[in-house]
Amino acid sequence: MVTHEGAENLPDDKCPMIFVSNHQNGLMDPMVVSGLLKPQLHWLSRADVFWNPIARKFLINMNGIPIYRQRDRLPDLKKRNEIIWDCCTKRLEKGAVLSLFPEGNHLSKKTIRNLKRGLSDLIRLSVSRSEKLMRLKVIPVGIDYEDYPGYKRRLSFRIGKEIEWRDLYDVKTECIDSLKLTARVQGAMSKLAIDIRPAEMYDDLYPYVRAMNTSKAKNEAWGIILTELDRIAKSGENEKWRKAVIDAAKKLREHGFDNSMRSEPWGRGSINMSKKKVWAVALIPISWIANAPTVIQQYLINRRGNQIQALEFRSTMKVVSAMFIYPISWTLIAILAGMYSPQFWMGFLGVWTWATFGNKFYGWLQGHLHDHRDAIEGRRFWETEGNHDLRTAWIHYIKMIQKDIAV
Question: What pTM value is reported for the model?
Fold first, then answer.
């Protein structure tokens, strides 16, 4: 399930654009951005991922453009990037839409890291080569996953307002103030995605932020979350508050909690418990029948994906594998069905339709079943006597984070 906001911030007219987004979840991030934005995107990606011949062919077919970094240690690095910038300029002049991750690489943490200067260089070189690109628009995007490995979990996708950059560009010197532009981009992205601060307290604050169910928040609810994140960041400047929160988090772990556990069902209090979706449970048998042509492939893909150590690549592996394996297997099953049917195309199309829409229905229902299980887990946590110690530690932990440092 997807929370999609900010579509009204997209320009009505066709113009050259650059989308900038936070980067947390491997290849899932570009697939999400490409799938939820209408324009066809041309991706700037680090060059080393193109060195694998299979990956290179896939990325080039997806309009991927390599960008070379200092760590690549190539003697002709500057010359290579000059060719890339020229390619980007030509595409932008034709009205193409570029997309990049200004953080430079991915990291499975809910935070906005220091940005690289690639965006500044791209704008500076593009505009200096073509005055037409003074109308270039920079649009920020924020992605927030409820659960990185579980690709059928909820995610939020937010599009922000255009980031102004023209006042930072000097026409005479053909230079742009990269520090100010980077600050603007980072500020815009932090309003669209989760940015846990202080960074050194990340592990201690992470359970609290997850308990806010950030991927569900819309409109005013999202604004409240941003205000709370700013309050936490400011409170983090107070040594007394920091010590109290760190101690509370330590006690929480001593009573059995670890950051792999989901705190979303618990919320920040018993009042946050979500409602059960009994109707979703009633539809489970139908979903089994609907997903029958896919169940074996799905089991094998999930099993293999869960063995990947890096969390930020589990969902990537599952989705990419499914993109290829599902259609191929459905086609083979449909051919067999057609061969044993009175009319081949009737059997073929019947099975193909069953597999396609059945799998879609199954995926849709799984999202609601996740919510239902969360509702049950929330009641178990707050109402079962056996959870007394952990529940007491959780309440204390929440209280310490919400404590007013002025008192």
Answer: 0.84
